[in-house]
Amino acid sequence: MSKEPNTVYIGRKPTMSYVLAVITSFNSSDTKEVTLKARGRAITTAVDVAEIVNNRFMKDLTVGEIAIGTEEIQQEEGGTRNVSTIEISLTRG
Amino acid sequence: MSKEPNTVYIGRKPTMSYVLAVITSFNSSDTKEVTLKARGRAITTAVDVAEIVNNRFMKDLTVGEIAIGTEEIQQEEGGTRNVSTIEISLTRG
Fold it and tell me: How far apart are CA B63 and CA B1, in angstroms?
């Protein structure tokens, strides 16, 4: 019953496994929007995923809002460090 | 006489050298807008630069449009491969 758009968290797996996750997410439900979220080095992968899904697999997609931000990460050895984040919204319409 | 906004190309140098380039670009001219451009692995660095300039050095900046894309790269061994790109616009206002 959630109205929240589907979210795919991008990590260290191969790019194509996230491409598949996005396509599955669009096809398994009636969703019109999937959001990619990534931080740190995975930001590049998130952009790759958005571009590959868009250009190769689902040409009816539109890249919507792209937001960047900063998160504070607790380090095991104490203290915090900042890591950049990105959110890329993909919409079908 | 160019009206084009200043552009900082992000590559493999340390993040802080691009942070400095952005701040210098804003301060050395009367520009209201600086665009960061990056591709491939440097995309993460571009997001880091935008966030660091914004949060630590120039709090009056706004992150404007963020655009992603794909470029075809000619490979030395022949053929092409695709690489993702990002453009992040920073405006002072």
Answer: 25
DSSP B23-90: HHHHHHS--SEEEEEEETTHHHHHHHHHHHIIIII-TTEEEEEEEEEEEEEE-TTSSEEEEEEEEEEE
Angle between helix axes A42-52 and B42-52 (nearest 10 degrees) is 120
Q: What would the pLDDT profile of B37-65 be if each residue is shown by its tens digit?
A: 999 999 999 999 999 999 999 989 999 99
Classified as helix, coil or strand, B14 is: coil
Which ipTM score applies to this complex? 0.89
Count how many pairs of residues, chain A against chain B, have C-beta atoms within 8 Å.
44
> For A43-84, how does the pLDDT look when each residue is reduced to its tens digit (9 = 90+)?
999 999 999 999 999 989 999 999 999 999 998 899 999 999
CA–CA distance, A38 with A2 (Å, rounded to integer): 22
A88 touching B, CB under 8 A? yes
The reported pTM is 0.91
Largest CA distance in chain A: 47
B68 vs A51, A67, A82: nearest CB: A51
